[in-house]
């Protein structure tokens, strides 16, 4: 990224590849994000769903580190930006995003607890008095806290995915090399399928209604194809080396990386492998550990192209 006067890409000759990639991404994203919903409807696949959650956690962690932060680092040290080429700008933005996400979840958690207390206060008095004489159901209270945690996690997670997916979609839309475009289209299909499963798993744990699940799922499904469509639309007008394009892409990528890394560790890996969530079956625990590493390894491998 050293040619600050690079010419715009010739995108017309690969329109078929890009359009095919766009529809492929639509299909696999839809399948990926709705697999957890289907799996959660059957008690017989509870163990399999636990393993899928572990796989998804590994996917998100590697996506944050390898894909998003890996893309942001060279962009924000590009000489075209006239910034220091040795200072780790991407790491700084990602750190800020991690801290911001923590503060956001902390504040939202307090809000949800306060709101729950207010609803209890407005309940009719005879019911409250009866409840006061009953022991507190600590298991139900803990489950409600986990649900609220996943509500927050799913929303911040989706925001992180949206920021990154727009730009990787645009990348496919403007890539002019035929081999790169084909490899990128395949990699993005795998990328979106795995991220969709991870996101859907958080929707299930947040216990969303079918309508809310569908709305948030459709937003995820459409984001990357919209990015591809934008790339195809701007075509020859897009200059990836412009200061504006580099600045926006680098900043959004590094902020997204921080959000994804935080979500992967705090909202996916730790809760999935907590005593409350893990099944007692030792084979399932071992399978989940393997799936965690496999998810990270798959996304690290895909990082060669996307």
Automatic annotation (TrEMBL):
InterPro entries: ZIP, Zn/Fe_permease_fun/pln. The keyword Aminoacyl-tRNA synthetase does not apply. The keyword Transmembrane helix applies. Belongs to the ZIP transporter (TC 2.A.5) family. It is a multi-pass membrane protein. This is G5691 protein. Pfam families: Zip. The chain crosses the membrane at residues 20-40, 47-69, 89-108, 149-172, 213-238, 250-270, 282-302. It is found in: Membrane. Keywords: Ion transport, Membrane, Transmembrane, Transmembrane helix, Transport. It comes from Coccomyxa viridis. Signal peptide: none annotated. It comes from the Eukaryota. The lineage of its organism: Eukaryota, Viridiplantae, Chlorophyta, core chlorophytes, Trebouxiophyceae.
């Amino acid at each position: 990224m050293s040619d600050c006067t690079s010419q715009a890409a010739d995108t017309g000759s690969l329109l078929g590849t890009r359009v095919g990639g766009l529809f492929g991404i639509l299909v696999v994203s839809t399948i990926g994000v709705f697999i957890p919903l289907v799996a959660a409807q059957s008690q017989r696949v509870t163990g399999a769903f636990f393993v899928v959650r572990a796989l998804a956690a590994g996917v998100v962690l590697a996506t944050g580190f390898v894909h998003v932060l890996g893309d942001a680092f060279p962009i924000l040290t590009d000489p075209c930006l006239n910034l220091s080429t040795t200072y780790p700008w991407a790491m700084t933005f990602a750190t800020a995003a991690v801290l911001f996400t923590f503060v956001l979840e902390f504040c939202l958690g307090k809000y949800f607890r306060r709101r729950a207390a207010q609803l209890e206060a407005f309940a009719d008095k005879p019911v409250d008095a009866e409840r006061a004489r009953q022991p507190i159901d600590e298991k139900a209270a803990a489950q409600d806290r986990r649900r609220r945690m996943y509500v927050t996690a799913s929303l911040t997670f989706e925001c992180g995915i949206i920021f990154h997916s727009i730009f990787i979609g645009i990348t496919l839309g403007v890539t002019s090399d035929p081999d790169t475009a084909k490899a990128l289209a395949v990699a993005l299909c795998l990328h979106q399928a795995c991220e969709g499963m991870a996101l859907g798993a958080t929707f299930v744990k947040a216990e969303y209604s079918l309508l809310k699940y569908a709305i948030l799922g459709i937003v995820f499904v459409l984001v990357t194809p919209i990015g591809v469509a934008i790339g195809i639309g701007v075509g020859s007008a897009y200059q990836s080396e412009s200061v504006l394009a580099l600045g926006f892409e680098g900043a959004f990528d590094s902020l997204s990386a921080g959000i994804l890394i935080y979500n992967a560790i705090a909202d996916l890996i730790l809760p999935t492998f907590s005593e409350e969530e893990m099944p007692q079956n030792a084979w399932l625990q071992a399978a989940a550990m393997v799936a965690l590493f496999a998810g990270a390894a798959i996304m690290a491998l895909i990082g060669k192209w996307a």
